[in-house]
Amino acid sequence: xxxxxxxxxxxxxxxxxxxxxxxxxxxxxxxxxxxxxxxxxxxxxxxxxxxxxxxxxxxxxxxxxxxxxxxxxxxxxxxxxxxxxxxxxxxxxxxxxxxxxxxxxxxxxxxxxxxxxxxxxxxxxxxxxxxxxxxxxxxxxxxxxxxxxxxxxxxxxxxxxxxxxxxxxxxxxxxxxxxxxxxxxxxxxxxxxxxxxxxxxxxxxxxxxxxxxxxxxxxxxxxxxxxxxxxxxxxxxxxxxxxxxxxxxxxxxxxxxxxxxxxxxxxxxxxxxxxxxxxxxxxxxxxxxxxxxxxxxxxxxxxxxxxxxxxxxxxxxxxxxxxxxxxxxxxxxxxxxxxxxxxxxxxxxxxxxxxxxxxxxxxxxxxxxxxxxxxxxxxxxxxxxxxxxxxxxxxxxxxxxxxxxxxxxxxxxxxxxxxxxxxxxxxxxxxxxxxxxxxxxxxxxxxxxxxxxxxxxxxxxxxxxxxxxxxxxxxxxxxxxxxxxxxxxxxxxxxxxxxxxxxxxxxxxxxxxxxxxxxxxxxxxxxxxxxxxxxxxxxxxxxxxxxxxxxxxxxxxxxxxxxxxxxxxxxxxxxxxxxxxxxxxxxxxxxxxxxxxxxxxxxxxxxxxxxxxxxxxxxxxxxxxxxxxxxxxxxxxxxxxxxxxxxxxxxxxxxxxxxxxxxxxxxxxxxxxxxxxxxxxxxxxxxxxxxxxxxxxxxxxxxxxxxxxxxxxxxxxxxxxxxxxxxxxxxx
Length: 732
Hints:
Blueprint: E1 3-9, E2 13-14, E3 17-18, E4 25-31, E5 35-46, E6 55-63, E7 80-81, E8 86-92, E9 97-105, E10 110-120, E11 136-147, E12 159-163, E13 170-176, E14 180-192, E15 199-204, E16 215-220, E17 225-230, E18 236-244, E19 252-262, E20 265-267, H1 270-282, H2 292-305, E21 311-314, E22 316-322, E23 325-330, E24 335-339, E25 344-350, E26 359-366, E27 377-384, E28 405-410, E29 415-421, E30 426-435, E31 447-457, E32 467-474, E33 477-484, H3 502-514, H4 519-528, H5 532-551, H6 564-587, H7 591-611, H8 617-641, H9 649-673, H10 679-697, H11 710-713
Parallel strand pairs: 3-10, 7-29, 20-21, 21-25
Antiparallel strand pairs: 1-11, 2-11, 4-10, 5-9, 5-11, 6-8, 6-10, 12-19, 13-18, 14-17, 14-19, 15-16, 15-18, 22-23, 23-31, 24-31, 25-30, 26-29, 26-31, 27-28, 27-30, 32-33
């Protein structure tokens, strides 16, 4: 046999602490057909700085779709099917880099996904630039060993083969046809080269993660051994590996035979469905009534052939709506006739390669009036790759190499729903059959009407009122995840264990918005001291900060007067410009220079915020530059007057020192104390401290300006005029 090795690599990704699925870094690989060995090379590394500590990286694997993970231990939505993912842990302790290998023999061909993440996020809000987070990098490479000339086992034809040694197992494959109800594999004529007892082990199927349903068969002696499989995967190559259990130098000769039991499908009025599809898309056409006679004959033949067929196929149309959004429509209407003779089968096509990033929702509703037997039950099964053709309580909805998802409806519980999170790329089937507690003979003539709704959605229920559905991308692959808020958690934001109450949400909104009213004293002080430009900036900041935080709330207490991004930008701009104009006002430079610096600094701040809105230097840069200008101006004033500036000790004790203290406390709260849990009151404290510090730090008005004399500026009836002109008298 000729083996070919192939190598696939993807660029490294920076890992994040886990708070929702978007923090997990996804790697997408495609394993080719006839692969006999798959090896993952997992490389994890961290930075060398003192902020880098020991860390545990969790890596999840899954075949066919992204892994469904739950590192936070939250609840999944009701009716959702969850099977734990296969995962390993990689520890970075003293070593800067860790290399791990994961081997998978006879892997399933198709899409494979790897998701890696760090432990749960601490929840602290870090200001960008104040601290340097440690970079943790992860890279996954894939090696495959592929057999180029794998022998094909033809159905019904015995094939002799020789296993050379235990170190070199024999690989063959057989193609499973469509509508295969069962497969029987038989191994016979087992002879060793040393004339000893023959011992071989046969592995049928490929390994899939997190669960593998590979079937094993051990044959000893010359006795024929066989294995029967129900519902093998349709239209797929089934890999078979035969390995010798004898001595190292002994070869084994065997003869293999594979046979299939094919199910004869029956279609319900396919001609009528084709005509109805054309009419629904193109409208009624002249002469369409002429097809009623052959349609009636077709329906009669389908009814007659229902008893001789093993399944009734219901035609389904796949309707693509959007990215990872599909709706399935039955041509014969939403109601499906279900009998006890043979299951009704619906094909849900999810094999495009771009459908595994959403949630498959299947809803079954029983029409109670259509069931004549009160104790009858309609059993349903949703399975991938192949349908379940015999539904009963003992089979538990399983096929040859997979485990399906059971559903059931009856007259007491007429509705059932199933949510498959990240369904694997494959053909999915919905099987429906009528069951009676005392045997199928009891309801051989009964029939039930079941309404089926099936669709693929990016996020189930659009993540609810406390979540946001986000479309994620890894290269060309798209998948969706829910980002929860207001303390809600879970896959679809349905876990209310840590959820905030409505009262808490209202309190948070009131604190974050009404705390901005503390700018009113600063505005009043600025107006009283004739700093009208500064008062305008404070008014702008108060207005947009109030309505930005009213729009930024995660819960139900939300009010947005304009676009969220616009409100956020205006809030950030007003905050930085307020600090800028306050410090320049304290510098007491000439008016023309002050206003030039006002305008120039505001333009530069607007540009820097557009480049990086959350960068720390967008605030620290203008502050430091304005402080340099202020210190320079104060030194100049002090040198010119030959004494300390400001000269009044009262100015220092009662205004400057309290204002500076409040400003430093505000910066400390903003940079080091805010977390996701305490944000609504720590950030409110930031609003109050900054506004109060501005009121203390504003300098007094110029000495030559008089205070506002409102009684003289308001005219009422009479106006007292003062004549300042000097009378000139001629002295004679």
